[in-house]
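Bug #77: duplicate submission created two jobs. Keeping one. Sequence:
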Amino acid sequence: MKPANVAELYRRLRDLNPEPETELKYVNPYTLLVAVALSAQATDVGVNKATGPLFAKIDTPEKMVALGEAGLKTYIKTIGLFNTKAKNVIALSKILIEEHAGQVPRAQDALEALPGVGRKTANVVRNVAFGEHTIAVDTHIFRVSNRTGLAPGKNVLDVERKLEKVTPDAFKRHAHHWLILHGRYICKARTPECWRCPIADLCAFKPKTPAPESVKAIAAKKKAKRKK
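Kept job's structure:
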């Protein structure tokens, strides 16, 4: 995608949503870290249902450790892989207490050193909690980047590096959320809703998905032809 089109793409997404936010519910950097760690292979909606009651009582690593692994499981048992995630959350909470004075570190390597925290999770935390210009590539961003031609790549790290390179500095703060929300609600995996996409004319994806009314009309025409 040409630099001018990249800038225009972000400009349009920004105009529609100037201050995008994560859809994960949290109360501080620590609960954000926990929520993002729990969201792996799970939906934000599902995580929020579990963490709402949890974060109302547990909002520090000290409280989490006191709650214990078994206690944590009672809150997150509806989330996929909850056994492993509970173990990791307790372990990372202990490390935060022992090595970081109970605070969430800002550095990428320190975050990735925590149990259950990978590059994507670290990038989300750094972006949301600390305002860093990181882009956490999930399945939505990977799809949008490849489908539109914005930053095509064979794997998430390749896409992340390309996005960091092509995204103008003025848009890097919120690029992550603009792209993930676009992928979640418009540029969907099975059937992208191209007819209502604000960047359709900039997108390399072909053929564009027609509006539902058009789909019905096309089907009706085909049916009429078969009857003749």
